[in-house]
Write a structure and sequence with these properties.
Distance between the termini of chain A: 65 Å
Mean pLDDT of chain A: 84
CATH class of the largest domain in chain A: Mainly Beta
Low-confidence stretches of chain A: none
Structural class of chain B: mainly alpha
Number of helices of chain B: 17
Largest sheet of chain B: none
Low-confidence stretches of chain B: none
Helix content of chain A: 25-40%
Order of helices and strands of chain A: HEEEEHEE
Strand order of the largest sheet of chain A: 2-3-4-6-5
Number of strands of chain B: 0
Helix content of chain B: over 70%
Shape of chain A: elongated
CATH architecture of the largest domain in chain A: Beta Barrel
Largest interface: A-B, 24 and 26 residues
Strand content of chain A: 35-45%
Shape of chain B: globular
Oligomer: heterodimer
Number of helices of chain A: 2
Chain lengths: 120, 396
């Protein structure tokens, strides 16, 4: 079979579109990776993770809850618009499991939490 | 000192090898070198600098002779091919060498001015990075004469952006850049070479003469373009050449090749300078160097010395290799060579990025082939990096 430009154009366009759909499906189906807060570095930026640790330095400001995972000086976790349950359960020295996406804000890595669960 | 000299020689050797083998980049070897010999620090860093500089000369050989280029040299395929079809492939390589030598030496000579400029203006320019990148992207897409090419160019930008965003932001994958660059610029070219059944014509090896004025003019243009894009993340040698070409207007194939040679080498040199000045890493090699050494004045002077040595070695090696290639490549089985390289690229991708990397490789190669079959500019594929960078700088 002769691969002329027209055929290559059609095949490559189809493969590109199919590949993009598959990539989006992979993202959607992707299981978060479990990692300890201390191991999270720049290479984890924008990745969805599950991380466990003890809460430290908890404070609430402008409808957002902040705390450090792994105690004082640990990895910052941000919970936007926390629920009443989260506000009640997320306290210093509690052991929690955080599910969220690693982001960078003002040069510091942080987890934007999607779910925080107490396990202690 | 003996250790440093040994590693400079090793870097020159690897630079020749990575330059000659399409799809295998100095950035890849740099990553491997750090993981294997990271404890050697400065010696390995020196090897990486020498390797990257030498490669910037030698990698025009597969681009021009086989049509199998990297992201930085693929623009040389068309003008280089014109000369190749006239049996002047070796001359085409020589033009890129002249550009590389002049451009590289000028880049080193003007480095004090460049350093002062970046220290004064670097941070201010960085505030405008997203807007400059958007402007470059718009020029890349819309500065075309035919409406059909604008539409296909736009489609390629959209597809590349989606692939870049998904893989760089949301996929849990290590080294996503490797399969993407290899797919967009390496694998797609190799697949196309297989399709069009590239054959080598008998090449002339002759003494060429070069008028000094255009050489100086195009080399200076390449140094300016290389210096300008060095402060822009997500923009590489190909965009620098594209923009310089648009600014200069019509130019001869020879002039264009001189300019490309200059841009390719200065882009590498400035990437190391910008690492020292701002701590920003523009290439895989710069990332590797950052991990290996403390960036101080002494290291910078050592690097400048290594760059000058490597410019000399790269120029001689590229000319010798081009003459050898001209004599021997016509006797090789290109199709078989291409198939072996394609197999190697798949293996390396799996090693660096796993099964998802293979998917990225195939998808990005498909987009690369789309640019080839529609006759649109392959620089549009760089949207895979530019769009995520734009969004990042805009706070998304």
């Amino acid at each position: 079979m002769e691969f002329n430009d027209f055929l290559v154009k059609k095949v490559s366009l189809l493969v590109s579109l199919a590949g993009i759909i598959l990539l989006l499906f992979l993202v959607f189906m992707e299981e978060p990776l479990e990692i300890s807060p201390g191991e999270i570095d720049e290479s984890w930026l924008n990745k969805r993770v599950i991380s466990e640790g003890v809460i430290g330095g908890r404070f609430f400001s402008k409808d957002t809850l902040f705390f450090s995972l792994g105690g004082e000086g640990g990895l910052k976790v941000v919970v936007f618009s926390p629920t009443v349950r989260e506000l009640g359960e997320i306290r210093d020295n509690e052991l929690v499991k955080v599910r969220g996406v690693v982001k960078k804000y003002k040069g510091q890595l942080e987890i934007i939490a999607e779910e925080v669960e107490t396990i202690g | 000192m003996a250790e440093i000299l040994f590693f400079i020689l090793a870097g020159c050797f690897f630079g020749i090898a990575t330059g000659l083998i399409p799809g295998i980049h100095a950035n890849t070897v740099a990553l491997v070198a750090v993981s294997l010999f990271g404890e050697s620090g400065l010696a390995v860093a020196v090897m990486i600098v020498a390797m990257s500089t030498v490669q910037s000369f030698v990698d025009f050989i597969p681009s021009i002779f086989l049509g199998a280029g990297e992201e930085s040299t693929f623009l040389s395929i068309l003008p280089g091919h014109k000369l190749l079809l006239r049996g002047e492939g070796v001359s085409a390589i020589k033009f890129t060498i002249i550009g590389g030598v002049f451009g590289g030496v000028v880049a080193v000579l003007i480095s004090p001015v460049y350093f002062l400029f970046i220290e004064e203006w670097g941070k201010i320019i960085y505030q405008f990075v997203p807007f400059i990148l958007i402007l470059i992207l718009l020029v890349m897409v819309f500065w075309q004469k035919k409406q059909k090419k604008i539409l296909w160019g736009f489609a390629v930008v959209v597809l590349s952006s989606i692939i870049g965003l998904v893989s760089l932001r949301f996929l849990a994958i290590s080294n996503p850049i490797f399969p993407l660059v290899t797919g967009f610029f390496g694998l797609s070219t190799l697949l196309n070479s297989l399709r069009v059944k590239t054959k080598m014509r008998r090449q002339l090896v002759k003494r060429d003469s070069y008028p000094l004025n255009p050489v100086v003019k195009y080399s200076l243009l390449s140094t300016l373009a290389g210096g300008f894009v060095s402060i822009l993340p997500g923009v590489g040698a190909s965009q620098a050449a594209f923009m310089a070409g648009k600014l200069k207007g019509k130019m001869s194939s020879k002039g264009y090749l001189v300019m490309l040679g200059g841009i390719n080498t200065t882009n590498i040199i400035f990437s190391f300078f910008i690492l020292f000045l701002l701590g920003k890493t523009r290439t895989g090699a710069a990332v590797a160097v950052k991990e290996l050494v403390v960036l101080d004045g002494n290291t910078l002077l050592i690097f400048i010395a290594v760059i000058l040595i490597a410019i000399g070695v790269g120029a001689i090696a590229a000319e010798v290799m081009a003459i050898i290639a001209a004599k021997w490549l016509s006797k090789l089985n290109y199709a078989l060579l291409n198939k072996i390289i394609i197999g190697l690229l798949f293996l390396l991708t799996y090693w660096f990025s796993g099964a998802v990397g293979i998917l990225l490789l195939i998808v990005s190669a498909a987009v690369g082939l789309l640019t080839i079959s529609t006759g649109t500019k392959r620089t549009n594929c760089m949207a895979f990096l530019m769009v995520p960078v734009i969004l990042f700088y805009l706070g998304f």
